[in-house]
Amino acid sequence: MIRIATIGTSVITEHFIDAVRQAGPDGSIAVTAVTSRTADRARAFADKTGVATASDDLPGLIAAGEVDAVYVGSPNGAHAAQAREAIAAGAHVFVEKPATPTSAEWEQLVTEARAAGVVVFEGQRNVYDPGFAAVRELLPRLGVLRRAAFAYCQRSARYDLVLAGETPNIFDPALGGGALMDLGVYPLSAMIALFGEPTDIAAFAARIATGVDGTGTALLAYPGMVGEVTFSKITRSDVPSEIEGELGSLEIDHIAQPRRLRLTLLDGTVEERTVEAAENNMRYEVSRFAELIGGADAASDQSRTGGVLRTLERIREGMRLI
């Protein structure tokens, strides 16, 4: 059994625990401990999620041989240091997106993990979703690809706190907050997974009172093709994402969780496909993490993460966030 300890007590960590239970109903993988900065907070979260062990000493759990892997679900700015600590202690690491603030820090984590004989893996749920596999399957029917426009715009309830003069974690620049790093990584990771890293980038953002980007757009140049990534935590859009080729187009209902696809070809063909998959699509990235721990090659997963982080840096530079 792969025994996992979690870092973080947010909703995303709750979703992860649920995903592990779905991915390992036979007990092959399980969250056996939750950790937090204080024992009381860890105990409260363990009781809430039904996990047996609560601790404020993650290195101690690893050293005692009580866990094999660590899930890092803390604020973005803490990811790198906590992942490094877990790797040094000898644990496999599943770190939430974005894994690190910079691509250089990610490459260092990969190097350290290889030296320690463990796996470091970035959670990016949409690219492991069955709906994403369906998108890949339909792409050749579009002919020569010319344009892709992916978006994730969802107004955060915590934006009301910003309007009231507060700085919640997700909008705190010191913690790696902002729309790009929280939501923009979904359309961007899909773009990189399908088309690779762009040759050129132009990016623009609207900043909010805390100093982070509330919404933004990045234009990505590829040989013979243009990509557009749009993201927002202060507005909402239900417009689908789309890929356009010389023979037709493919609409994707939600780039973070593709469930309804619509293929429209110039010859008049119209096909609609509904993807049957788990509501909590983190279960698919959890399954991939288990495969990697079991010996599957992590190189392509880690390389894609590096490509996303390099592109994020270029976008942030274009938006004058760094």
UniProtKB/TrEMBL annotation:
Organism superkingdom: Bacteria
UniProt GO MF annotations: nucleotide binding
Keywords assigned: NAD
Domain Gfo/Idh/MocA-like oxidoreductase N-terminal: 2-123
Keyword NAD among record annotations: yes
Name of protein: Putative dehydrogenase
Keyword Metal-binding: no
Taxonomic source organism: Microbacterium telephonicum
Domain GFO/IDH/MocA-like oxidoreductase intervals: 141-251
A Pfam family recorded for this sequence: GFO_IDH_MocA
SUPFAM superfamilies found in the cross-reference section: Glyceraldehyde-3-phosphate dehydrogenase-like, C-terminal domain, NAD(P)-binding Rossmann-fold domains
